[in-house]
Amino acid sequence: MNDVIIDQICLSNFRCHENYSLKCKPDTTLILGENGCGKTSVLEAIYIALRGKSFRAVDREIIKRGAEFYRIELRYNDGEKVVAIYDGNKKTFLIKDKKSMRLPVKEKYPVVLFLPEDLHLVATSPTKKRDYFDRVLTQLNSSYSTSLSRYNKALKQRNELLKQENVNLEMLFSWNILMAKYGVEIRKNREKLVEKLNLELTDTYHSIADNTDEVVLRLKSCTGDVGESEYLKLLEMDFGRDRLTGHTNFGVHKDDYDFVFNNSLADGSASRGEVRSMVLALKFIEAREIFRTLGKKPVVLLDDVFSELDSARQKSLVSNFKDHQVILTSVDGTN
User: Fold this and answer.
1) How far is CA 89 from CA 9, 19, 274, in A?
2) How far apart are CA 72 and CA 98, in angstroms?
3) At a CB cut-off of 8 Å and minimum separation 6, what does 43 contact?
4) Which of 28, 146, 190, 258 is most buried (CB neighbours < 10 A)?
5) Which residues contact 291 (CB under 8 A, 6 or more apart)?
6) Full strand arrangement of the beta sheet holding 111-114
7) Lateral strand order in the sheet of 215-220
């Protein structure tokens, strides 16, 4: 699939929308409406059709209250379409008359998603920062998604065992091995992403803020630069503490990211405008890196972010995404 242009999105029983249809323009489509009218839900549906799952909820939370299913139909301008149906138990995708339980990797299309909470990325929790960068990595590398999924499954099983009174190291061994294997892979991918982002972060920031400040992203790795065998050993050494707390204390699921602004932590030293310029810079690099890696221009979904930006940053956003299909929501038609 080359660069795609979304032609239309049709929804049935999706959140507050019983029946909804939106015709998209090849450049910029604006969805106007008051808060609470379901604008973000339209972006969420597009995201599911392009990426296979929601960015904010599980399927059972998405069905319109009182309905038994939801349905998304996304049509491209070349006549192809993706249909996603959730029947209350399972979700299926229908593409070219073929049904599958997951959106096939070759049918996924990259997205740059920009939510209002992303503007607070610098000061948000480690979990939300990990989720953000994991979403970027998953698009750039499908094997990362597999590693992350397997790691999280092993972590969940290990944590469930730790809550049992009779738990011992032998019971955890197979999960420890999986966590060590995939944990090392995840850390290496995160390190590579941070290196790539830092190559362009300051220069891209300067193109928005027009100053001489320096911006650096740092991965605060919980595991350090260890290999699989040492990772496994550290998990085993932590067994006593893990049994007491009932959860796994060591691992890449504890990683964090720091934004450094002129050699100080940006959270506390950078102004609100400077923080927003950092986040914009990240988004622009994300779009470029997707194009370089996958050869596809991502669809850009902007959820009511214009109202949060001053005119200079609005212009920067428009100019950087001018060659992409952009679908944005707003409460104000003047933006």
Assistant:
1) 23, 21, 45
2) 16
3) 31, 113, 301, 303, 327, 329
4) 190
5) 297, 298
6) 28-32, 326-330, 299-303, 111-114
7) 215-220, 256-261, 264-265
Query: Could you tell me which of 66, 75, 101 has the C-alpha nearest to residue 86?
Result: 101
Residue 333: predicted pLDDT? 61
| Domain residue ranges in the chain | 6-109+297-330, 120-282
* Both structure tokens of 288: 């470029």
CATH 3.20.20.150 assigned to domain 6-109+297-330? The reply is: no
Cβ–Cβ under 8 Å, residues 204 and 281:
yes
Euclidean distance between CA atoms 153 and 312, whole angstroms: 44
Over residues 238-286, the pLDDT tens digits come to 999 999 999 999 999 999 999 999 999 999 999 999 999 999 999 999 9
Whether 259 and 265 have beta carbons less than 8 Å apart is answered as yes
Q: Domain 120-282: which topology?
A: Glutathione S-transferase Yfyf (Class Pi); Chain A, domain 2 (1.20.1050)
